[in-house]
Amino acid sequence: MNVEIVPQEAARIAALQDGSASMVSLGNVDSPALLQGARDVEVLTQANTDFYYLMLNSQWENSPFTDPRVRQAVNIAVDRQQIADVALGGLGRPTGVTPTGLPDACEPGELPSATADLDTARDLLAEAGAEDLTFELAVFSTEPAPAVAQVIQQSLEEVGVTVQIEQLEETSWNGKVYGEVPGEFDAALSWFAGYADSGMVTKWWDPDTAGFNLGFMESTDELSGLIDAVNSQPQGSERQEAIADLCAAVEEDAQMVPLVTRPSMVGYRCDAASLSLHSDEGYGNPFRLLSDARMVQAE
Question: Which domains are assigned to the chain?
């Protein structure tokens, strides 16, 4: 079995269509429609606990997000359901810090960002003197991240905020976001693996534990204490309450803003390969069962 790294999705689709590839990973939610009707080609979609999030840099002195009111306004104004419906073709779902669908996860529809209106966001921007806010959003070019960024841009236009999207290949994006402390950027879009337990991913909101986010996020005693509370409880009502408290505190802090679950899709040629795929994925790897794949012998 040969594994090739092919960054361009159009090239992966073409390889699947002409038979030079037996299976490919797909990111663009329009790709299944492009492959519809292609002979001997199938597309499988996984449910997912992996999710996109926004980094709003509070540590760089030139960032507009040193003021928590500005961060809170952006958090309120971003339309997560529109991201799920438009950028992700209905394959994603709004989420809080704890990936939606996992036991004890907080209910994203009950969070402040979901219940506050756009006038509240405008008032926060006015209080902060940021009515004409313009900021740059760094996003890697791997689909569907650019489409997610475009919906964020459209959402924030509703409250008078201008988002300038800087689309980078992943190496350049990593250098910009993680290369310096503090990082010299306004905001960035990325995704987390959601794992299989509601408590696991919460630790990334503590820079003293995570480390990677020291360049754009300040550690707070409140968040650290709530994260510890979540991870010291067994599944059940007390843990569920601790998770709800953490999700609400993250919303107010708004240095890292959870958005929507991240779909994954695999296209394969049923005349060339027989493969297994987990019904859902939480580790960013739709090919985890690749070793179980079997090639179909041509007749």
Answer: 9-46+263-295 (no CATH), 51-261 (3.10.105.10)
Tokens linked to 161: 């905020």
Beta strands in the chain (DSSP E): 23-26, 41-48, 51-56, 134-140, 162-168, 187-192, 256-261, 264-269, 273-274, 280-281, 294-295
**pTM of the shown model:** 0.91
Tens-of-pLDDT digits for all 299 residues of the chain?
Answer: 788 888 888 999 999 999 999 999 988 888 888 888 889 999 988 888 999 999 999 999 999 999 999 999 999 999 999 999 999 999 999 999 999 989 999 999 999 899 999 999 999 999 999 999 999 999 999 999 999 999 999 999 999 999 999 999 999 999 999 999 999 999 999 999 999 999 999 999 999 999 999 999 999 999 999 999 999 999 899 999 999 999 999 999 999 999 999 988 899 999 988 887 877 888 888 888 877 777 775 54
